[in-house]
Specification:
It holds the Pfam family Phage_Mu_F. By secondary structure, the protein is mostly helical. Helices cover about 60% and strands about 5% of the residues.
């Protein structure tokens, strides 16, 4: 059950390839969002200017904001465009989902083979049926649609709140109109941030499910899979703690947080268990997260943990495993997230 350097390299290569695909999706979403704002931004600014022309003593009553026909028409246009953007998220991502799942399956199979002697790789099952992938893609598209459906209403609500706050609290609309619209743009792009998170998270999970299909096809030669986090300054404490944990081949995962970049690395049974006689098995090359963390400078440790969380760990007030918590989310799957500082202190 030795994970080799080749296994880890294959895992890293698969992750990089997946993120390249995901980055293309995100670039397409950004371009679409920018295009819509280029259309509605000037209209919104014109509506604010119209309100300013009717202002008394530089003040626009809240009721005038609510009654503005031009503003209402602009927000209606924005709603229509946002609904189109939300619908297009599934189209942007959906065309690649089946291929991503197959890539996940192929990468996982290659990692299993990297742990088997070359003369015996025929024990590894390469093929799994297409039906599970098709069903998984359908479920993912349905989930994307469900998660993005509330976006337009939420974005418009936040833009309205920003407009009312900016115009109706005694500010001079003539001088602050552009600033008001700029803040409204920030609210608009909050929807983009949410859309990007949904898209990347679902793409990563589809790849993992493809990997799981390979594991399930090879349960007779696997001990299971091991959680593999990227050991870097960007890795959160929860993922560091879960790095290296063992899981059954049938178990989904890794169930890290939204947009988490962790991977599942298959772990083959020992060569002795598989009946490969007379050959020496290589040493396990899987890195130890705690050892890696302890060898960092204190500045780097603080960057990852935060000063107070690190102090609790160093003082022995908390254990390493307490840094991660399984979180339930009724609108999404369970995920392993960083334990809140207040909970650790308690």
């Amino acid at each position: 059950m030795a994970i080799t350097p080749e296994t880890l390299q294959l895992s890293d290569d698969a992750k990089r390839a997946l993120l390249r695909i995901s980055d293309n999706h995100l670039n397409a979403l950004v371009a679409a969002w920018v295009g819509v704002w280029d259309e509605i931004g000037p209209e919104l600014e014109a509506a604010v200017l119209e309100l300013a022309l009717n202002a008394k003593d530089g003040y626009v009553p809240r009721r005038d904001v609510a009654k503005s026909k031009r503003l209402a028409a602009t927000l209606e246009l924005a709603t229509q465009r946002l609904e189109e953007l939300a619908d297009n998220i599934g189209e942007t991502v959906g065309g690649d989902l089946a291929a991503i799942a197959r890539e996940g399956r192929a990468a996982q199979t290659a990692m299993i083979k990297s742990q088997i002697p070359a003369a015996h790789i025929s024990v590894v099952t390469d093929h799994t049926a297409a039906a599970p992938i098709d069903a998984m893609v359908a479920r993912t598209l349905e989930r994307i649609h469900k998660d993005t459906r509330p976006l337009p209403a939420a974005v418009i609500k936040s833009i309205k709140a920003e407009l009312i706050r900016g115009i109706a609290l005694g500010e001079n609309p003539r001088k602050t109109g552009q600033r008001i619209v700029k803040r409204a743009e920030g609210r608009f792009n909050g929807g983009l941030t949410r859309a990007m998170m949904i898209a990347r998270t679902e793409v990563l999970d589809v790849h993992r499910v493809g990997s799981q299909l390979s594991d399930q096809a090879n349960t007779d030669i696997l001990e299971g899979w091991r959680w593999h986090a990227a050991l870097s300054a960007r890795t959160c404490p929860s993922c560091l703690v879960n790095h290296g944990t063992m899981h059954a081949a049938s178990e989904p995962g890794p169930i890290d947080h939204h947009q988490g970049r962790c991977a599942r690395v298959p772990v083959a049974k020992s060569w002795a268990q598989l009946g490969f006689k007379g050959i020496s098995e290589p040493e396990d090359a899987f890195p130890d997260a705690r050892e890696w963390f302890d060898n960092l400078t204190e500045e780097s440790q603080i960057q990852i943990m935060g000063r107070e969380r690190l102090a609790l760990l160093q003082s022995g007030s908390i254990e390493w495993q307490q840094l991660t918590t399984r979180t339930q989310n009724g609108n999404w799957r369970d995920s392993m997230t960083v334990t809140p500082l207040l909970a650790l202190k308690a």
